[in-house]
Design a protein that fits this description.
By secondary structure, the protein is mainly β. The chain contains one helix and nine strands; from the N terminus they run H-E-E-E-E-E-E-E-E-E.
Length: about 220
């Protein structure tokens, strides 16, 4: 009986520890999810030119809410039967109001960026309806975020950025529809970052300092 009681007590302790761990993880996730943060970069929409021969052109535009910016404008032109140039621009604007305790604030975010690239395309199927294309280029842009809140000692956060990308893809052309699958790999470097820096990224940490000329770089696909 004593052994059985000890086992039951041990199982109850393990169960309690497990439930406590789950609660802590869920609470931490909720804090991270619903806490505010500042956006310094948004990728532009992937541009698939689908050029096939010299003199072909392609112009497109898109309007979004999140993810790839508010407005994207893209253009491409084939300078030969295998070489094309592409250019694109992205603008993002967001204005939002939030409440933190008894404090109400406003945030105004502006991101403006552009890219220029060069690529190669080649038909490879017997009936000439499949095309392989690969483009590479670079871009630059600026970010400015203003937080109107009396709790923030310096309400402005800003950054410059530049990027390099490589984008291979394959295109299928038909009588009534064209389709393409492209994968863009991009390297981004943020510089001249003027923002708050925390020594430790913990939700209870209020020890921060305002830093300027910081940098941050990353890859994404």
């Amino acid at each position: 009986m004593k052994i059985l009681y000890t086992k039951l007590l041990s199982n109850k302790k393990k169960d309690l520890k497990y439930k406590l761990s789950v609660c802590i993880w869920l609470y931490s996730f909720a804090v991270i999810l619903f806490s505010g943060c500042v956006t310094l970069y948004k990728p532009n929409a992937v541009h698939s030119p689908m050029l096939q021969k010299k003199g072909d052109g392609h112009v497109s535009g898109s309007i979004g809410i999140t993810g790839t910016g508010l407005m994207n404008l893209q253009a491409a032109y084939a300078v030969s039967n295998h070489i094309g140039i592409i250019t694109e621009g992205m603008y993002h604007y967001r204005s939002s109001t939030y409440t933190s305790g008894t404090e109400t604030g406003k945030e105004k975010l502006n991101i403006l960026g552009g890219e220029l690239g060069l690529g190669y395309f080649e038909k490879f199927s017997q009936n000439q309806n499949k095309l392989i294309q690969i483009y590479s280029g670079a871009g630059f842009g600026k970010t400015h975020d203003r937080i109107e809140n009396s709790l923030d000692p310096n309400p402005e956060v800003s950054s410059d950025f530049f990027n390099f990308y490589v984008q291979p893809g394959i295109t299928f052309t038909g009588k009534h529809i064209d389709m393409a699958v492209d994968i863009r790999t991009k390297y981004v470097k943020l510089y001249n970052i003027n923002a708050y820096l925390y020594d430790e990224f913990e939700w209870w940490n209020t020890d921060y300092h305002y830093a300027s000329d910081s940098t941050l770089d990353f890859f994404f696909v």
